[in-house]
Structures are given as structure tokens and as C-alpha cells.
Amino acid sequence: MSKMADYDGPILEIDKLSISFFTRLREIPAVMDFSVNVMPGEAVGLVGESGCGKSTVALGVMQDLGKNGRIVGGSIKFKGRDLSEMSDAELRDIRGNEIAMIYQEPMASLNPAMKIGKQLMEVPMIHEGVSEEEAYKRALEVVTDVKLPDPERMLKSFPHQLSGGQQQRIVIAMALMSKPSLLILDEPTTALDVTVEAAVVELVKDLGKKYGTSMLFISHNLGLVLETCDRLCVMYSGEAVERGSIEDVFDHMQHPYTQALFRSIPLPGADKNAHPLVAIPGNFPLPHERPPGCNFGPRCDYFEAGRCDAQAIPMYDVPGFERHSTRCVKFEEIDWDAPIQVGEQKEKPEVGKVVLKMDNLKKYYEVAANALFGGGEKKVVKANETLSFEARESETLAIVGESGCGKSTFAKVLMGLETATEGEILLDGNNIEQTPIQKRNTKTVADVQMVFQNPFDTLNPSMTVGRQIMRALEIFGIGDTEADRRNRMLELLDLVKLPRAFADRMPRQLSGGQKQRVGIARAFAGGARIVVADEPVSALDVSVQAAVTDLLMEIQREEKTTLLFISHDLSIVRYLSDRVMVMYLGHVVELGTTDQVFTPPYHPYTEALLSAVPIADTSVEKTHIVLDGDIPSAMSPPPGCPFQTRCRWKDQVPGGLCEKEVPPVRDLGDGHQVKCHLAEDILARMEPVIKIAAE
Amino acid sequence: MEPLTWTGSLGALLNPVFQGLAMIFIVAVALQILASFIFRAAPVTTNADGTLTSGNGPIEMITKVSKYSLYGLLGLCLIFLLAGIVMPFGKAGIIGAVSARLAPVWLALFVTFTLSMVYKRKLGLYGKLFDSLIGMIGFGLVMFWVYTAVFTGVFDMIATHDSLAQLSGMKNKLPGTPVRGADPETCGHACWYLLGGDNLARDVFSRMVDGSWIVVRIAPLATLFAFMVGITLGLPAGYFGGKLDTLLSFLANLILAFPVILLFYLLVTPEIVATGIPSFMAMVLFIFPIIFVAVLINSRYYTRPRLRTPLLAGILAVLVWIYLSLISAPGTVLAFLPESLDLFNIPGGILVVFVSVVFVNAPTVFRIVRGLTLDIQTRDYVAAAQTRGEGPWYIMLWEILPNARGPLIVDFCLRIGYTTILLGTLGFFGLGLPPESPDWGTTINDGRKLLSIYPHPALVPAFALLSMVLGLNLLADGLREESLRD
Lengths: 695, 486
What we know:
The structure holds two protein chains of two kinds.
Chain A: E1 12-22, E2 27-38, E3 43-47, H1 54-61, E4 69-78, E5 81-82, H2 88-94, E6 99-102, H3 106-109, H4 116-127, H5 132-145, H6 151-155, H7 164-176, E7 182-186, H8 194-211, E8 214-219, H9 222-228, E9 231-236, E10 239-245, H10 246-251, H11 256-263, E11 316-317, E12 325-326, E13 354-368, E14 378-392, E15 396-400, H12 407-415, E16 422-427, E17 430-431, H13 442-447, E18 448-451, H14 465-475, H15 482-495, H16 512-523, E19 530-534, H17 542-559, E20 562-567, H18 570-576, E21 579-584, E22 587-593, H19 594-598, H20 604-612, E23 620-622, H21 657-660, E24 665-667, E25 673-675, H22 680-685, E26 690-692
Helix pairs in contact in A: 4-5, 5-7, 7-8, 8-20, 14-15, 14-16, 15-16, 16-17
Chain B: H1 11-38, E1 45-46, E2 52-53, H2 58-86, H3 93-101, H4 103-118, H5 124-128, H6 133-153, E3 177-178, E4 192-193, H7 204-240, H8 242-257, H9 260-268, H10 270-275, H11 277-285, H12 287-301, H13 305-327, H14 348-376, H15 380-387, H16 392-400, H17 405-428, H18 440-447, H19 456-484
Helix pairs in contact in B: 1-2, 2-3, 4-6, 6-7, 6-19, 7-8, 7-12, 7-14, 7-17, 7-19, 8-14, 9-14, 11-14, 12-13, 12-16, 14-17, 15-16, 17-18, 17-19, 18-19
């Protein structure tokens, strides 16, 4: 079976596409009046929050909408042919051959029972009927192209033997096996760590150029789209609201939603004073409860009754630009360059006395090498290695690191779910490192509380919101009667700015951001003085992230809480933290105030992390540092410095010291600590990673 | 008196129509299968108001024919049943007469379904069941037998004869045979053996409906006890893991590996009963519900002793009294409670049945609960409960168990079905229940001896068993489907 004949026009033309899902109750429109063109070799980004219909568009292109979904209007043309008029056999030919798709979860796209090589070879053998040797040769070539080490061994391994980043590279390789004309990437890096994500994005960009493939890149991350795409389409609630080239949309946005989106994301290049966050008010409308007229109307600052909600709004071409259009009736009247209206900035209270002190904390796990019989040699996993720091009253200490760096273990030890192997944790001068949570008194338990990462998991689904908060109050011994506790619970709901009526709702009736607010209310039920926030906003949509972040900071101001903010997102860390601690494989590699950590000299790992963060700002220039390989397993950490396997400065240290010795903690002045062998003069020569271009 | 025919006076008119429709239906279904190989389905069009219109092609035409002929068949069945209620008793044949006897069941089913359909959006998972056809059919079958059992057992309404009475001359008579020597003026509904007589000249219809009362009483209750035992042991095994888990899982495997029938034979052997083993097993197994309830309440309310203490004391007093009355019975090794305090005595045979069913089902439930616990305890809300210092039993019973309820409810329905079959098996082997008992297993066993000559005494209870278990399985399917969908 061969490819379709050469075609000069746009690879993909989506014209006024409408897709609906039909349920027992009603028709649910998922995509309305959506148009986009993808030219040969062009990368188009599709950006929007969850539920805006961007994945539905991708499924529509693949003609894979399931039993309930159908195209109710418009057309999708691939190389000039209407996909909805093709027979099943023709579609099968096109899928995987001309159009390939890469999904979010790499493990779900690979067959766990088949070797990588077999899965890759299948693609050309089915679509082009090539011989096995030819297919193997091609598989080897593609695996080399996606920069995987030792391609021949890779082909012989099973998916579970590879790390997440390697799996995603294999999925990309599989998509490229048949040299498709169109590649659809549906949030391809969401499941990966930041440094791995940066490498995968780099790879996708290079391969796009090398193979000349057109790309439809679906993401919620504006920074990623800026780095990968030529053109951009912003979606809101099933509609494209703005479309244009990256430069036009980023620098001359013409739709209030795009503007609001940009204002609600923190930028690592700027702190909260230079770029205050403005959350989008209100909530995303449910698909069957969309407002008349402009979908964004109810949340828009520029809303004008009688005009914005009068009729369905078409796309307008923006004069003076090429292929730039917006779905806003007032785009010519709005002053897009007006400065951000910021509410009064509250001063942060002074940082108080030391509340929590960690001294040389270590946590090792013993893992039996032979799991079945428990005997034999025992391996030691060093989850935390000599953790020392202090946290003060009303201070925000950010703990930054990728998966496996030991931040969750640290949280467990602090909470008392595990006891420390060595070292001390002092809470108000009292040792708590060896007291498991059952033996802690109520006051200590109530003082140290946690906000969890996954909003969909943080609340018990079968108990009302109010009941869960009241249970926490009961446990912490607050209030004498049920009525007392109910009052206190309602006050807590006020504190996190949720309507009191939510007390009697079940968690499934709440959105992600609302659930996270309940989680925060629960953590503060006992008047917590130290709150560990484990990536509290990373699973939320950008517009909600800003609101929840602001809420946390506001409560912190009022309650003088010490906030331990665990995150991998350096933008948000820069925005809200006073001090930053960077962790890698159980070690603290850098510790200092936010300014110290975000300006040179850096620890080499911090430098790489900073460079990996996608930034949604065209005026920012970044040094590209791509780390090779993956994070080593904590079971068998490298000898010497934990970062030496991926460090680009290693050759600057004489005598191979990095491979022999764990570097000592060095004080670079003013409490800025770095764990690195690099000499002072080399550290001093480091250049800032993020530069804002002169206007 | 004339023997009854199956459809009586309606038959002359409706039977040919019924046969014709049945033929059309069968042919249409066969054509439908053939056509799906030949033609392509016509495209479905979307209307502006958000509805869909199916296309018009050969496949759609044949589908329509088979659909309407099926509706016709169902409509005729409904006419047969309704006519029996409306027409004088016996005029509408056996089907009509049976339908007339079951009139209270029809009424109860009708009320249940109407109310549930009207308020289905307010009834949670139960209401969602009425969105699934499979679930509704299953629920209907199950409720049919539940209502039959209740009306027979409690109100003494449906049976036409005493299920143990033997009327002379009615041995192995065919369905619809008039009772010999009955006075046509006064006999009323007792004029006929509606579904014939068995080899001891007892009324098969009455035995069937009486049998349902036995099944409906024992099967759900025994399953409930099995769940209590399984949950009380499965939660800690999954939550704590380690040696406790290894030990309990080993025990569960041991019980599962033991041949069930052999176990039953052992349990009912008089020598074994004399040693008191079944009584002691009952003593151990029945204590789990008390532990379960006590821990459930204590873990929830221990922070409020003023509410907890009286509540716990009251409930425990009642439960312990019931427990003591349950296990203490005169004539067994455990006869310690004075008769004035003994609330009720379970016949020895039933107790053995109960114990064996619980003993055999509990390990399977244990494994399901253990697996669910392993999964759910990794959730953040469990971690949140741990970090606010909740006790392990609170976490198990209030954080984990409520969120495992979906699969457990489905399994509960399926397991009542298995228990029903198990009861049938026990009855068939003559284990536990008294030999005269009208339960379905015993009746099938009685009827099997003359199966080739007179199949009806065995077929009737067999169909009863089949429809009830089928109903439970369909109900479980419907629940699973609806609980997955949102």
C-alpha cells in the first residue's frame, strides 16, 4: 500500500467543524465552528484548558470519536480528501501511515507483551508490506534518530524495562516509522519530568524539521507551544477564540481570553512585583450550560451586555496581520496594551522565629534483594541524605526537584508516617523525628498538615465536603458540640472562598480547583502552623492555578503559616517562595533565597532545571541546556556526586573528583549553599540562563 | 370437571396469531444476521434539535420487522397474563390461572417499577439501574421471586394447596388436572393442580412458591454474613499487609482448596453434629458482625464519648442478645441460655446450611476486599486521614470500605445467585434441610426419579431456580454497567 499522491495544498484543512457527543439526556456539543489549516512542514499548536475540546479535535481528525460522538457539521480534509467520506478500509490505510498520533501516557500506547522491535517493525510491514529485514533496518534507523542509547538492545527490550522518557521516545519513533505527513501530539510530555520533557520537546522539533512532517501539537502549556510551533490556535469551551502565528498571538493578542490566560501564568523571568498574577474569575462553563453569544462573556472584563451575548460570534480577521483572526466583537475597541489592573498588594508580614529545623536528616529504606523469600542480601535505598535546613514563621520554603528526588519521603518523615533513620527534626525545639504519628499529641499533628497533589484523589468521594472538614475538627479536638464544629467548618469554607452551600455537596459535584480549596480548608482546620503543600496546583488548569496559589498565599499572610511548597515548576516557585531548596536524588544540591537561586552562580542541576522550564514569553532568551539520559535510580545511585552522570560542567573539575567524592556543602555567602566541586571562579563565570531581551 | 388447557378459551383465537408472529420473528432475526454481511448500514443523520435519525436501508427495514414482531409477541404474553386476572378463574387456562394467583405480585411489581421510574434521578445507583434494560429485567426477575416469597410466606396468599398435603389420585398428574372429588361450586382456586402433582401427589405450584420463601430467607442473609466475615478479615489483611496478610490469605486458600461437597457431608454427619463442630463454627462466624458493628461505631465516634458510649452500649446489648439466642439451642452442645431469654431457635439443619454457606463464601469475599483495600489505600484521602492521626480502623471502615462499595454490591448480587445454587445443591443431596421441605433443590431431587415420564415436577422448580439466579446475574451486570458509566 502506498502513500497518497503528492499534494501541494494544505495537509489538513478543518473547516467549520462541529462535533457533538450524544448521551441519553442530551446532545453535548464538544467542538463548535472550529477551523484550522495545517500547511506542509508547519507545526500548529492547539492550546486550551482541560475540557475545551482540543483532544476531541484530534480524535475527529483520526475519525475515532467512539459510539456517541459524531461530526454534526463542517468537514475535515486531509490532503484535499474529506475524511468523513472515506470507507473504513481507506481510513485504516491512513491512520498510522499518513497520520500518526502520540498520546499523553506512553505506557498506554505500547503493548506491554511485545518487544519494542516487533512493535516498531509492525508499522511498515502492515502499511507498506515491506520485508522483515527492511522493517528491522528502518526500526533501527528511527530508534537512532530519536537519540536512544544502544538501539539494538532497545529493540530487544520490553516496554516496562524502559523509563518514561525512553518510552515516549519509542512512541515517537513508532509514529515516525511510516514517515507520516501529519503528526498529532496530544500532550506528549505531561507525564514526564521537566528536564526529560525539555529533551523530548527538543527532539520533536528536530525531527519535525528533518522529516518535514506537519504537526498538530495539543497542549495546555503556552511555553511549550512557543518552543515547538509556528502557529497557534487558542481554544475556549469548544471554540477557537484566536488563531495566528506565534509572534502575533503572543505579542499582539486580540482576544480577552488569550490575554487573561497570559496574565494568569507566572513567568520564571519575573517575580510577583514585576508580573503579578491575575486569576480569571468564575468557572469554565459546562458544555451544556454555555452562555449565549460569547462563551467567555461571563468571565470577561470587557463584557458588554446586549452586544457580547446577542448572537453567536464569528471569527474576525485582524487587519494588518496575516492569517490572524479572533472571535471577539470588540477587538478593535479594546486597548490591548493597557497595564494590568492589580488589586492592592498586601505586604507580607515579617518572617518570624525558627519553627522547624532539620538537622542532618537521613532516611534509608532496606529493600530485600530477593523479594520472594526475603533472605539474602539487603539493598539500601537512600531516599534522603543529610537534609539540613530551617523554616521560619510565615516563610515559604520551596522544595524543588523531579520525581525520585526524595521530596515525598521527606514529607512522610516530617508528617510522622515514617521515622527518620538518622538526624533530627525539631519542631519548636522538640525532637519529633522518631515519633510516629500515632504517638504524636493532637497539637503536634494539627500543627503539621499537608495539602495533596491530585485534587481528584484528595477528598473521600463518599463523604460530603462539610463532613470531611468536621471530621478533621473532631480529631483535632476543636469545638465542644456538633453545632460549634459546623460553625467553624462554615468559617473555614469562607476562608477558602467557597460558598457555604458546598458543605452539603459530594466531592464529585466540585471542580478540581474547588476540591483543592476544600483540601486546603481541611489542612488548616486545626490551625496548622506548618503546611506541606505537595505540588498543590500542578494538576490544575492554568487559570485555576493562579487563584489557588493566591489563596494559599493569602491564608499564609493571615495565619502566619510556614509553607513548605513542594514543586517542580520553577515559575510558580519564583512567584511565591522566599527561599528555595533544590533536591536531586535525596541530596540538597542548592539552598538559598529565591534571588540567590534564580541568579548565577547556580548549581549545575539548578541551571539545567531553569533552562528546561518552558516560558511563554517571546521576549525571553534562554540558554538551551539539554540533559542527557534519565535520572538514575535511587537503588543504585552513581558514585560521588549524584548529578555527575548528567552534569555538563564535570570536566571543569580536576582529577575526576566528581566521580569519587560527594561534594561538601559550601556556603557562597548570605546562607546560599551549594553542593558542588566546581571552583569559585568557575561558579562566578556562570551566565544567567534566562535573559529578557532589551525592548 | 374438565382439565385445564394452557391458554383456555383465549387459545382458539390467540394461539395461531402467536405462532405466526413467532415464525416471523425467527425469520427476521435470521435475515438480520445475513444482511449484516451483505449490506452496509445506512448513515445516521443529525437533526438541528440535537436528536439523531437513523437511515433507511435494507438492514434498517429488517431490524424494524424483527423489532415489531418481538413487541407483538411480548404484547400477546401480556394479554394472556392480564386476561387471567380479568376473566373468571380457570377460563383463561393454566397460564391465566397462575397469573391470577400471582396478581398481588404483579401489582407490587407494577407499583415498584412506576415509583422507581418516576423518581429515578433522585435514587442514586438504584435509580440509575432503571436506565439499563438488562438491569431492569434482572431487577424484575429478582423482585418477582422476592414478592412471591413474601406474599406466600408472610400473607399466605399465592399457594393453592398446602405444600405438604398429599391428595389421593393426584400422583404425577399433568398440569391443569382437576382435583379429584372437589366440588366445582365451592372449591374456587383449589379446583386444579395448576402445574400438576408430584410423585407423592403434592401440588407442584404450591411447592414452588413455598420453596421461594425458603430461598429468599436464607440466601441473602447467609451472603450478608459471608460478607461481614470477609470484610472484617479482608480490610486488615490488605491494609496492614505483612505476616497477618500472609496468614489470612493462606487460610483462605486452604478453605477454597477443600472440596465443598465433602465439607457439607462432613458437617451434617450426625457424629460430627454431636461433637458440636457446626455449633462452634456458628459461634465463631456469627461473632464477626458484632465485631464489625462495634468497631465501625467506635472508630467513628470515639472523639465524642457522650454520644459513643450509650450508642455502642445499646447496639451491642441488642446484638449480643440476638447472637446468644442464635447460637444457643436446646439439645445441642451450646444450650446455656435459659428458655425465657432465648428469643428464637434455628432448626439444626438450617444452621448447618447457614454455616456451610458462610464458611465457603467468606474466603472469596475476603480476597476481593483485600484486593480493593490494596488499591484504595494508595489514594491521597487515605494519606490525608493518616496525616491527621486517624486510627487504622477508622481509615479501613470509613475511608476505604465506602469507596469499595461499587464492586462489592455487584459481587453481593452475584454471590446471592451462587448461594441460591448452593442451597439447591444442598437440597438436591438432601443435606441440611428436612426431606419434606418444599425448597427447590429438594423438589428437583424428588422429581428427578421419573424425569423421563413425568418431567413437570422437576422442571418447574428448575425453571424457578434458573430465573432467580439469572435475574441476580443480570441485576449484577446492570449495576456494574451503570456504576461504571457517569
